[in-house]
Amino acid sequence: MIALQIKNVKTFMSRFLTSEAFDCFLLSEASVTTYNTFFIDGHQNKEFFSDEEWEDNSIRPYDYSMWKDIKSLCFHLIKGTRTPVGFKFILHLIPSYVESILSDDSVTVPVSEVTALVLTVKYDSSGLTITTGTSLKTFLPDKSADIFWDKYMKLFLEKAEIDYEEK
């Protein structure tokens, strides 16, 4: 797990909310504090879907909402003439990407043991920080998945031309 301080918040937010850069993530949860605090639970609600839709992986492939489908709502909550008091987004990498990333030979943790590769985006009075994390089904002393995920996210940010410094 690493924490990275984003140097240019405006550039990051543009990439995060208006580009496809983070479309490989699912939204686990979000909170945005402006004149109110808005909470979003990223779990999809079974009651909203018909039984057929709920079971159809082409309509609802994941338990969480895809970031690309919900980022415009988050953008609407954040945009305005005043800076938000704060926000926090917890994202999970889409499972097929997890399998692809963790297939590297340096990762000795079985992919079946990884619940999620997590990215937390947090903004408050101290600035914008992103934190990586690995969620495992059981405790494992092997940190190779964590180490690889940390390296991967640094490369991901560099490719998206997002400047950061490690905290």
Cα-atom radius of gyration: 17 Å
Distance between the termini: 11 Å
Low-confidence stretches: none
Domain unit count: 1
Shape: globular
Number of strands: 8
Classify the helix fraction into a percent range.
25-40%
SS content category: alpha+beta
Report on the biggest sheet: 8 strands, antiparallel
Tell me what portion of residues adopts beta-strand conformation: 25-35%
Count helical runs: 5
N-to-C order of helices and strands: EHEEHEHEHEEHE
Overall pLDDT confidence: 93
Short structural summary:
With 167 residues, the protein is of the alpha+beta class. The chain contains 5 helices and 8 strands; from the N terminus they run βαββαβαβαββαβ.
Architecture blueprint of SSEs:
Blueprint: E1 3-6, H1 9-18, E2 25-33, E3 37-41, H2 51-55, E4 65-66, H3 67-78, E5 86-93, H4 95-101, E6 114-124, E7 127-136, H5 144-159, E8 164-166
Antiparallel strand pairs: 1-7, 1-8, 2-3, 2-4, 2-5, 5-6, 6-7
Structure description:
This protein is of the alpha+beta class and 167 residues long. The chain is built from five helices and eight strands, in the order E-H-E-E-H-E-H-E-H-E-E-H-E. The chain has helices spanning 9-18, 51-55, 67-78, 95-101, 144-159, and strands at residues 3-6, 25-33, 37-41, 65-66, 86-93, 114-124, 127-136, 164-166. Strands 1, 2, 3, 4, 5, 6, 7 and 8 form an eight-stranded antiparallel β-sheet that branches. A hairpin with a 3-residue loop joins strand 2 (25-33) and strand 3 (37-41). It starts with a strand and ends with a strand. The relative contact order is 0.23.
